[in-house]
């Protein structure tokens, strides 16, 4: 879907799909370099990371498998609750595996801190994080993120997998939602 179709609900486009794909190509080259000769397990965090998983994985040349987790943090609002629940666990045993967590966006980092602690307890051979977007507060989170697509301003964004109340995930560009939509 083109952003112009619902442009009255977006105040501005921050990153176009072309910019996102170009950045993913660069990150994929770094990831291929890092995991050369290894078997990689990508773990996508549902639902937001669906788009970045689909695109990043197709830019990679490394042999890989994919698995998915669903965890809740925000519900349908725009504030992190700090309460994290596993809604769907992995199908794969990650012990001894090289794992790369694929995230859509890191805001407070609360969700990710919980997830990393949980995954580390399963004894992977290695564990790294890739996120398409990162917000300013994430910089004060103790969690180390190896691959970052773009740093965003501290605004609520939608598109490229990111939702508001379950909508807007199918926008190919990423932009800010006009306040009147959710206030
Ligand atoms: P954190 O725990 O890092 O504060 O929040 C991470 C999760 O909150 C993301 O996976 C995403 O679901 C949601 N989130 C954080 N910031 C945004 C945003 O700007 N837009 C949307 N749509 N979701 C966000
Ligand atoms: Mg996420
Ligand atoms: Mg959401």
UniProtKB/TrEMBL annotation:
Cell compartment(s), UniProt: Cytoplasm
EC number from the UniProt entry: 2.4.2.8
Gene Ontology BP terms: GMP salvage; guanine salvage; hypoxanthine metabolic process; IMP salvage; purine ribonucleoside salvage
Assigned GO CC terms: cytosol
Pathway note: Purine metabolism; GMP biosynthesis via salvage pathway; GMP from guanine: step 1/1; Purine metabolism; IMP biosynthesis via salvage pathway; IMP from hypoxanthine: step 1/1
Gene3D superfamilies recorded: 3.40.50.2020
Cofactor: Mg(2+)
Domain of life: Bacteria
Catalytic activity: GMP + diphosphate = guanine + 5-phospho-alpha-D-ribose 1-diphosphate; IMP + diphosphate = hypoxanthine + 5-phospho-alpha-D-ribose 1-diphosphate
PANTHER family: HYPOXANTHINE PHOSPHORIBOSYLTRANSFERASE, HYPOXANTHINE-GUANINE PHOSPHORIBOSYLTRANSFERASE
Family recorded in the similarity comment: Belongs to the purine/pyrimidine phosphoribosyltransferase family.
The protein's name: Hypoxanthine phosphoribosyltransferase
Gene coding for it: hpt
């Amino acid at each position: 879907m083109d952003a112009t179709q619902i442009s009255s609900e977006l105040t501005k486009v921050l990153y176009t799909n072309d910019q996102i794909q170009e950045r993913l190509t660069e990150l994929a080259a770094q990831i291929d370099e890092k995991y050369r000769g290894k078997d990689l397990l990508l773990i996508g965090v549902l639902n937001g990371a669906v788009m970045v998983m689909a695109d990043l994985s197709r830019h990679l040349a490394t042999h890989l498998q994919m698995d998915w987790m669903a965890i809740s943090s925000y519900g349908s609002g725009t504030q992190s609750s700090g309460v994290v629940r596993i809604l769907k666990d992995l199908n794969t045993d990650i012990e001894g595996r090289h794992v790369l967590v694929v995230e859509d966006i890191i805001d407070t980092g609360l969700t990710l801190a919980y997830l990393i602690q949980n995954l580390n307890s399963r004894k992977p051979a290695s564990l790294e994080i890739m996120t398409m977007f990162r917000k300013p507060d994430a910089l004060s989170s103790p969690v180390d993120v190896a691959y970052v697509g773009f740093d965003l301003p501290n605004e609520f964004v939608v598109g490229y997998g990111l939702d508001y109340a379950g909508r807007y995930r199918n926008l190919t560009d990423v932009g800010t939602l006009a306040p009147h939509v959710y206030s």
